[in-house]
């Protein structure tokens, strides 16, 4: 027993003596497992203790558990240990991922037999790396390549938890693997895996299977249930989303605590309370998110960071006089007078010395407790009891690193000295740090009390932003965090504009307020984004009115019509404002919200949040408005891509389908645009430019005079507004910028800063540099020449001649600097007249600054100078605008030098090197380009885009070669062939790499086809392959058989294998391209879009097809009759057929020729072409020929084709089945069941094939319908999209299309099968809404490679109960 107690004493959360006594009496101890998905080095297991039983999934967040003894496997060799471990982990992991449940699998825990279930035994582990490697290796071997990243994220690396016990020879561990299938990773996906099998060879795996959790086990899904997995994972996705949301909501009441914190900060601003800060070590990136501290005047700071002077918090306050702990107490034990009497100056006290101090070095905890602890206790006691009266101060603990005993002593002192008051606040971003902190304080402060004092887990940047809002605007805490309406629950997805926004501001006429009003006004008129404070001040006449541009009246009138309209067809109405930067578009949009805030509930959408979360919060806001008027919610969406905005609109509309009033939401979309004219003239869109109307001009001029006369603003201090008044007149802009530049000290270094920021702002939209980077750039001149009491914004305004703007960037959570306007940045570059190659070189020469001091976002901005392109065509447009400018206005050598310097500066960035390689090959510097693309490939292996660039280098190198005359010996052509094959190899590598990437990069396929066809054409021109009787028989014989001409047997020995694979590889590449086209490319634009591909294909097919009997006779003479089917196929290609996307655009004459060519053939390709040609003739409205075979015969041929087709290959045979077996009124009742089976099997197969090939970016792309269901009979019901024109077919051709009826069940849409035999699942088309409940609906039906898709879904009047329809079906 003593031994057990001794072991227990070493454990975190260890068993107490009473538990050990219980073990002796009962023979077992129930213990908890290691904390889920966390690392706790102090956590141990005791041998013989028992974990709770294995469990199934509870709420998906609480992990399920599975135990594995691993006793026998641990005695085997390393390979067998790896396989056994990996097999169990992959099986359990895949099951949890498919069921969306968290889980932990434990090795070294018994699951029965001679041991108790769950008994901890442990496993001897000689090599931990073996299990880590097994997990990494078998994820790649067992999961499909495109899901490797999903598995890597979900299946955590193994954790080794030590087991205490009576082991003599070797240490034992429980090996645990946590599974965390976050919805953001696994949504809409189910996973198949191939498990390794010990009974087979070491290279083999079992068949691919699907696993899921059932009870406490992981089971394989039977083959017959696989079709149900799509619906199963959809349900689990819904449950997981709810579980994750509930978990988030169950966390600490963060916003209540923020409210209390903000209240105390407001009191601090009003001098009602003093603040004491206690802090510790922080990282460099943390400093960017502590701007709110700079706005607070601390009574004193107790700093435990020994490096604070050099890189910690004190580095932000270099002019504050510091003290050491030992300096602050006199020999009599009282506070030194300099500390006690100077109440208006912050006392910065280093509590554990500084590393750069000669006299006060940092102490380890033990030495500190002996030598400095008492000093701290005395200081805290005297502050609490002698210096500051009770209730007049608050203590803020800012914990940015793991907790330690030193800070705990400070907490103990204040907690005791303040009699346990709630005037202590703790901010801890990391939850693990908080747990350590709570453990240190448990003897004095219980966990519940500490929880109430602490704000835990809130992102520091978000906290910084909110506190700075309080500091700068003087908003009331009630407005920021209104507990009565719980608007804080809607953060951070939407920010509500309250009807009484800013109404609690008092004493706006005092002197201090007048200064803040002036700052707010100047910030706006210098180009800053308008705030609610600006509108409130103008409305209450504390400053001048804000001009309403004509666009305001237009939008206002539009919204009034929407609100006052009795009914609307749409649940969500969209109004779009596009505007040139700085023309006031954002001001118009926010002014609209401000003026509508008392009529409608208004809010701003945070576009960085997930669309699903935004939708949920918006619905909650709509439902919370119980005013009985059924008014819509007005949501402002700024600078969001059109696709995301449309998706939000769809989700909102679907959520409110059953709401009686319409509209329920108005989306006010505000988008920046560089265009001076509007591209479209939609009724719900308007475009705002720099040009002022006749009404606006006098308003702007009056306002400018008012600002100059009443507010005493100089024009250069509000230059952005002046420029708008002048309609950004170029002459005025040039003059103003010239004057401002001339006023700047030419020797200060600030001109270099302005030029570099101008370059960045001009070429990279939305770019900035952080304040700390500005200070570093000009060698801290700001800090040495100006006192710290002067705000940084004033300093920048002074030294930069008002050209720079200081602002807070909420997305990055940092203070930033940029030029006041992009037009000003452009003009600065023109007037400074320095070569831009020189400016960017200067920027790159400061690469130490960009590497070691800047934020990651700024580094990204600098990289974009070299890699972000505009335009897709033209030689120069292949590069960034900066490189294009240097090429055009300086020379290409300068551009090359700049790119080479960028590569050296960003020597770990593959894409900068890739861009340089692309530049070099266009300069025909192929050897150097080859070197740099290999560097890029080494930095980013297996990247399809870099490999494509490598292929382009060899392709252009090949094209640049001066080829010998065709009569030259074969060896003279070796270099050309070698380059062509290297290009093809690179393009094939690009194709292979693309398969594991999130987007489908088809450039490698195109590249291979172009180069390979060029090579075939080149070979056809050589004497050894010259044409005989119009046929390149020797070329065909060489490429398609084992024959090799004697002349090239030795000369081309190294090329024969690759050259003989050319034909097959070209065909495969073309098939891949056309398959993707069949899914996502509209047929009617195929020839125009892929003109070059069609040209190559026709040219390639020409060498292999026959137009006369003489060629066939030649084949017989050469004993090559076996090649006739293949060559016949090429004749089909030459006629324009053989490709699904092109077959329905062919002339009837060519279709008849294809039918004759393929008639009676037994191979799959010919049979498919035969069937497609017959269908194309049957549906062609201009066809004057009779259909050659009956539909019944077509169905028989189609059944044969599907039987021949490999499931993993083409979707086309199954698409044909859908067309042929789609129900019609005259259906043969005798074959109802068989027809229905064929139809549903085909649809299911199409969906499986689609899901198999689908990539992340393609999930956002709609599959393109090849046909719509029309009003005709038989095959003529199907109208090909080439006959429907551009635009929505149901709008262009409403009379030709048939509205089809179906019904919804939850999120699913169905139609009847053959004679009501069954229900057929239909996919929802893009931008289509469905009612959330069971409803009758009608729609237009499209046929895609995914299956049937519904468009323009509309509710139908109910006739009976939908459920009864379902049951009858």
Structural notes for this entry:
The structure is a single chain. The protein is α/β, with parallel strands linked by helices and 1369 residues long. It has 58 helices and 32 strands. Strands 12-13-11-10-14-15-16 form a seven-stranded parallel beta sheet, with helices on both faces. Strands 1, 2, 3, 4, 5 and 6 form a six-stranded mixed beta sheet that branches. Strands 17-19-20-21-18-22 form a six-stranded mixed beta sheet, sandwiched between helices.
How do the strands and helices of this protein lay out in sequence?
Layout lengths: L1 H7 L8 H10 L18 E2 L17 E5 L9 H22 L3 E5 L15 E2 L3 H15 L5 H7 L4 E6 L7 E8 L3 H4 L5 E5 L8 E10 L2 E4 L8 H21 L4 H16 L4 E6 L4 H4 L3 H4 L3 E6 L4 H4 L10 E3 L12 H5 L5 E4 L14 H7 L1 H15 L5 E7 L5 H13 L6 E5 L2 H11 L5 H7 E3 L3 H14 L3 H4 L13 E4 L13 H15 L6 H8 L10 H15 L7 E8 L5 H12 L4 E5 L5 H14 L8 E6 L3 H14 L9 E8 L12 E4 L7 H14 L9 H7 L4 H14 L6 H14 L5 E2 H7 L3 H5 L6 H8 L4 E6 L4 E6 L2 H11 L3 H10 L1 H6 L3 H12 L13 H9 L2 H14 L4 H13 L3 H14 L4 H17 L13 H21 L8 H18 L12 H8 L15 H5 L1 H19 L5 H4 L1 H12 L6 H9 L6 H11 L5 H4 L4 H11 L5 H16 L11 H14 L7 H10 ...
Parallel strand pairs: 1-5, 2-3, 10-11, 10-14, 11-13, 12-13, 14-15, 15-16, 18-21, 18-22, 19-20, 20-21, 30-32
Antiparallel strand pairs: 3-6, 4-6, 5-6, 7-8, 8-9, 17-19, 23-25, 24-25, 26-27, 26-31, 28-29, 28-31, 29-30, 31-32
Helix pairs in contact: 3-4, 14-15, 22-23, 24-25, 26-27, 28-33, 29-33, 29-34, 34-38, 37-38, 38-39, 39-40, 39-41, 40-41, 41-42, 41-43, 42-43, 43-46, 43-48, 48-50, 52-53, 53-54, 54-55, 55-56
């Amino acid at each position: 027993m003593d031994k057990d107690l001794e072991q227990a004493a070493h454990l975190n959360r260890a068993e107490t003596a009473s538990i050990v006594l219980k073990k002796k009496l009962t023979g077992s101890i129930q213990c908890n497992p290691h904390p889920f998905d966390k690392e706790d080095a102090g956590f141990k297991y005791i041998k013989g203790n028992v974990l709770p039983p294995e469990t199934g999934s509870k709420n998906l967040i609480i992990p399920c558990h599975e135990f594995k003894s691993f006793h026998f496997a641990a005695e085997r060799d390393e390979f067998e240990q790896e396989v056994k471990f990996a097999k169990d982990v992959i099986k359990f992991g895949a099951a949890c991922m498919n069921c969306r449940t968290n889980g932990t699998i434990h090795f070294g825990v018994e699951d029965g037999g001679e041991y108790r279930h769950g008994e901890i035994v442990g496993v001897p582990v000689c090599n931990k790396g073996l299990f880590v490697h097994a997990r990494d290796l078998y994820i790649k071997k067992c999961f499909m390549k495109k899901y490797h990243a999903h598995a890597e994220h979900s299946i955590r690396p193994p954790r080794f938890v030590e087991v205490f016990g009576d082991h003599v020879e070797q240490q034992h561990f429980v090996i645990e693997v946590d599974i965390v299938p976050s919805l953001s990773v696994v949504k809409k996906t189910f996973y198949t895996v191939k498990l390794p099998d010990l009974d087979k060879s070491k290279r083999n795996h079992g068949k691919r299977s699907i696993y899921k959790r059932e009870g406490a086990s992981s089971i394989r899904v039977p083959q017959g249930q696989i079709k149900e997995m799509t619906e199963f994972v959809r349900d689990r996705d819904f449950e997981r989303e709810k579980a994750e949301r509930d978990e988030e909501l169950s966390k600490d009441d963060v916003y209540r605590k923020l409210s209390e914190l903000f209240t105390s900060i407001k009191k601090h601003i009003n001098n009602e309370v003093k603040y004491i800060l206690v802090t510790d070590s922080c990282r460099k990136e943390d400093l960017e998110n502590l701007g709110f501290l700079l706005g607070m005047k601390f009574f004193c700071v107790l700093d435990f960071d020994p490096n604070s002077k050099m890189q910690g918090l004190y580095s932000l306050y270099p002019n504050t006089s510091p003290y050491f702990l030992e300096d602050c107490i006199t020999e009599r034990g009282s506070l030194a007078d300099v500390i006690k009497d100077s109440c208006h100056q912050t006392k910065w006290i280093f509590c554990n010395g500084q590393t750069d101090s000669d006299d006060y070095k940092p102490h380890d905890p033990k030495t500190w407790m002996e030598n400095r602890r008492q000093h701290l206790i005395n200081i805290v006691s005297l502050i609490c009891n002698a210096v500051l009266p009770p209730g007049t101060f608050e203590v803020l603990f800012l914990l940015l690193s793991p907790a330690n005993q030193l800070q705990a002593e400070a907490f103990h002192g204040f907690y005791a000295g303040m009699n346990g008051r709630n005037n202590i606040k703790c901010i801890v971003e990391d939850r693990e740090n908080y747990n350590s902190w709570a453990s240190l304080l448990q003897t004095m402060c219980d966990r519940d009390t500490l929880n109430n004092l602490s704000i835990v887990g809130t992102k520091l940047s978000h906290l910084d932003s909110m506190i700075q809002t309080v500091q700068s605007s003087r908003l009331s805490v009630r407005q920021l965090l209104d507990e009565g309406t719980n608007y804080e629950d809607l953060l951070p997805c939407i920010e509500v504009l309250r009807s009484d926004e800013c109404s609690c501001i008092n004493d706006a006429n005092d002197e201090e307020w007048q200064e803040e009003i002036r700052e707010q006004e100047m910030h706006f008129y210098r180009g800053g984004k308008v705030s609610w404070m600006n509108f409130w001040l103008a409305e209450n006449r504390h400053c001048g009115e804000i001009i309403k541009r004509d666009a305001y009246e237009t939008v206002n009138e539009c919204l009034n019509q929407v609100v006052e309209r009795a009914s609307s067809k749409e649940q969500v109405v969209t109004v779009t404002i596009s505007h040139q930067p700085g023309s006031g578009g954002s001001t118009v949009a926010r002014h609209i919200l401000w003026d509508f805030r008392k009529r409608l509930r208004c809010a701003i959408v945070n576009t960085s949040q997930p669309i699903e979360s935004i939708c949920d919060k918006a619905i909650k806001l709509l439902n919370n408005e119980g005013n009985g008027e059924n008014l819509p919610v007005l949501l402002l969406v700024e600078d969001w891509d059109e696709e995301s905005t449309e998706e939000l609109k769809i989700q909102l509309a679907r959520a409110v389908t059953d709401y009686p009033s319409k509209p329920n939401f108005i989306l006010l979309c505000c988008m920046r645009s560089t265009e001076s004219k509007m591209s479209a003239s939609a009724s719900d869109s308007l475009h705002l430019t720099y040009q002022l109307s006749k009404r606006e001009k006098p308003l702007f001029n009056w306002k400018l005079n008012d600002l100059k006369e009443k507010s005493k603003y100089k024009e250069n201090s509000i230059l952005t507004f002046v420029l708008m008044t002048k309609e950004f007149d170029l002459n005025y802009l040039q003059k103003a910028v010239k004057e401002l530049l001339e006023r700047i000290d030419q020797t200060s270094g600030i001109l270099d800063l302005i030029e570099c920021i101008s370059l960045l702002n001009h070429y990279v939209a939305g770019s900035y540099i952080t304040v700390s980077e500005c200070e570093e750039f000009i060698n801290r001149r700001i800090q040495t020449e100006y006192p710290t009491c002067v705000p940084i914004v004033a300093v920048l305004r002074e030294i930069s001649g008002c050209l720079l703007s200081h602002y807070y960037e909420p997305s990055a959570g940092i203070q930033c600097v940029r030029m006041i306007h992009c037009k000003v940045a452009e003009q600065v570059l023109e007037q400074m007249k320095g070569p831009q190659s020189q400016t960017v070189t200067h920027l790159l020469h400061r690469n130490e600054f960009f590497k070691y001091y800047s934020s990651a976002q700024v580094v990204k901005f600098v990289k974009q100078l070299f890699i972000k392109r505009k335009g897709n065509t033209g030689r120069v447009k292949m590069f960034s605008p900066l490189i294009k400018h240097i090429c055009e206005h300086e020379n290409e050598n300068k551009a090359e030098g700049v790119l080479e310097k960028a590569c050296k500066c960003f020597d770990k960035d593959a894409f900068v090197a890739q861009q340089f390689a692309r530049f070099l090959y266009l300069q025909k510097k192929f050897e150097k380009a080859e070197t740099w693309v290999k560097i890029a490939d080494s930095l980013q292996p297996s990247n399809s885009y870099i490999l494509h660039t490598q292929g382009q280098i060899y392709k252009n190198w090949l094209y640049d070669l001066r080829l010998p005359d065709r009569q030259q010996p074969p060896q003279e052509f070796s270099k050309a062939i070698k380059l062509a094959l290297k290009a093809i190899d690179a393009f094939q590598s690009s194709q292979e790499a693309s398969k594991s990437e999130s987007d489908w990069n088809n450039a490698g396929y195109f590249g291979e086809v172009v180069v390979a066809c060029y090579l075939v054409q080149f070979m056809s021109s050589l004497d050894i392959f010259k044409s005989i009787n119009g046929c390149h028989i020797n070329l065909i014989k060489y490429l398609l058989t084992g024959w090799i001409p004697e002349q090239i047997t030795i000369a081309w020995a190294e090329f024969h294998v690759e050259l003989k694979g050319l034909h097959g590889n070209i065909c495969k590449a073309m098939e891949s391209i056309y398959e993707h086209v069949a899914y996502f490319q509209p047929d009617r634009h195929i020839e125009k879009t892929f003109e070059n591909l069609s040209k190559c294909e026709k040219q390639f097919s020409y060498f292999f097809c026959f137009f006369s009997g003489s060629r066939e006779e030649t084949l017989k003479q050469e004993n090559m009759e076996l090649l006739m089917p293949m060559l016949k196929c090429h004749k089909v290609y030459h006629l324009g057929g053989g490709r699904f996307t092109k077959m329905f655009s062919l002339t009837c004459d060519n279709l008849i020729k294809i039918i004759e060519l393929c008639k009676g053939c037994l191979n799959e390709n010919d049979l498919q072409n035969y069937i497609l040609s017959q269908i194309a003739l049957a549906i062609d409205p201009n066809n004057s020929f009779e259909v050659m075979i009956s539909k019944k015969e077509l169905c028989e041929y189609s059944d044969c084709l599907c039987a021949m087709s490999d499931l993993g290959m083409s979707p086309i045979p199954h698409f044909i089945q859908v067309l042929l077996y789609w129900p019609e009124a005259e259906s043969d009742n005798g074959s109802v069941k068989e027809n229905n089976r064929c139809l549903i099997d085909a649809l299911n197969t199409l969906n499986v094939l689609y899901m198999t090939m689908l990539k992340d970016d393609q999930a956002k792309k709609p599959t393109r319908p090849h046909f719509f269901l029309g009003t005709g009979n038989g095959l003529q019901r199907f109208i090909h999209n080439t006959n429907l024109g551009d635009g929505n077919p149901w709008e262009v051709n409403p009379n030709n299309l048939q509205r089809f009826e179906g019904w919804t069940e939850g999120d699913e849409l169905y139609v009847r099968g053959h004679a009501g035999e069954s229900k057929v699942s239909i996919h929802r088309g893009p931008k289509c809404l469905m009612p959330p409940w069971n409803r009758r609906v009608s729609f237009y039906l499209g046929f895609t490679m995914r299956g049937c898709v519904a468009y323009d879904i509309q509710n139908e009047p109910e006739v009976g109960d939908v459920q009864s329809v379902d049951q009858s079906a």
